[in-house]
Design brief:
160 residues
Length: 160
Amino acid sequence: MHGAEDTPGVGAGWLSSAVDMTRNEPPRPGLAVLLAWLVPGGGHLFIRRPWPALFVAGAVLPLFVLGMHLAGYENVSPVRHSWYFGLQSLAALPTAFATLLTEDVVITRHLPHRSVGVLYTAVAGLLNLMAIADVWARCRRGDPADETATPDPSQVETIG
């Protein structure tokens, strides 16, 4: 008889069943993708890939912060830059914190690189989207760094 900890999605065992890398099957992508969206590098950490996590965090977060600095900390705003905000939101928690911390910022001087800063934060969000896609692919198709990773035969296209 199985207890709640043995049933995926119930009790304390749901987290370990979602990320059990000792089995040959890849982890479920739902929580990993959510973490990758919330925190740059978080999804990779969740699926136990620290180097890609470090790379993603080291690329997305400094680019995001540099963009904010170049734009005078006023560029992450759904009111002032609605289209860019949609792209910035692909890095959820950095965007949320930046929005809350800078909602009352007023520019009092000319910033020659303001538009570059807006673009940098948008590109940081797009880079995080690529990381989210990588986490999803590693969960669905197996990790390419893993020697035992083999594609699902139902997802392989044949040519000819």
